[in-house]
Specification:
Shape: globular
Number of strands: 0
Largest sheet: none
Structural class: mainly alpha
Strand content: under 5%
Helix content: over 70%
Distance between the termini: 23 Å
Radius of gyration: 17 Å
Number of helices: 8
């Protein structure tokens, strides 16, 4: 559990790095959006080849189908509850509204928990952390925090408060990875394919609902190319790891 927690915190530390970058300089929104598209493409590749394919090889059709459906539905339900309590709808008609900065961070936390649980579950098979997935999560976290930190500063929040907020998110992500490893590990090796597919369904729903629309909103016509570049990079990393 400790190792899983440390890996989860390491991946989420990219949020703190992104926040520092967003506070130190003015990064063009289009660059941030294209970096987000790159990260989304990398995550899609990692989900396909580092999670779903492995889950199918170990468990077959039923666990993968059930896990994907359950993960998508759980994320969708949690996302709807979050919006009902006032969180901004990223990538949709209402995006990063003034005075809604903390809700943006709350949305990032909702996005990050499934990713952290996956990182914790990749250690259950005893083969070590999934490097392609770890890299994809790290890459996708930087532009998300960069953009949100800049918005929070424009809303009047002080830099120490903003960095502290992202540090809390990183710590919670590390805790989610540790709990994912400890609680899911007690279910036995037979449950790993279902767990992997569940997390893949949740994260894929998040990508389609938030990251990709948000990236396209500011990235324009180059968004597709950046997404494919991220996918190809993560795929090649999977092949050489």
């Amino acid at each position: 559990m400790l190792e899983a927690g440390l890996w989860g915190f390491a991946a989420a530390s990219a949020l703190v790095i992104g926040a520092f970058i967003g506070l130190l300089g003015s990064v063009p929104r289009r660059f941030v959006a294209l970096a987000m598209a790159f990260g989304a493409g990398a995550l899609i590749s990692a989900l396909a080849f580092d999670l779903t394919e492995e889950a199918f090889a170990a468990g077959g059709t039923l666990p993968v189908a059930a896990g994907l459906a359950a993960g998508a539905l759980v994320f969708f339900a949690g996302d709807q509850v979050l919006h009902r309590f006032g969180a901004a709808r990223r990538g949709k008609r209402v995006r990063k509204a003034d005075g809604n900065g903390p809700a943006i961070v709350l949305g990032a936390l909702l996005d990050g928990i499934p990713e952290s649980v996956v990182l914790g579950s990749t250690l259950l098979a005893g083969a070590g952390v999934g490097v392609p997935f770890l890299a994809a999560v790290f890459i996708s976290n930087v532009p998300e925090a960069l953009s949100a930190a800049a918005d929070l500063r424009r809303e009047g929040h002080r830099p120490p408060w903003i960095i502290g907020l992202w540090v809390v998110v990183a710590l919670v992500s590390g805790l989610a990875a540790a709990l994912g490893n400890g609680l899911l590990g007690g279910m036995g090796a037979g449950a790993v394919p279902l767990i992997q597919a569940f997390a893949a369904g949740a994260i894929l729903t998040m990508l389609a609902d938030t990251m990709i629309p948000e990236a396209f909103a500011d990235g324009g016509d180059l968004t597709g190319l950046a997404t494919v570049f991220g996918f190809a990079t993560a795929f090649l990393l999977t092949q050489v790891s």
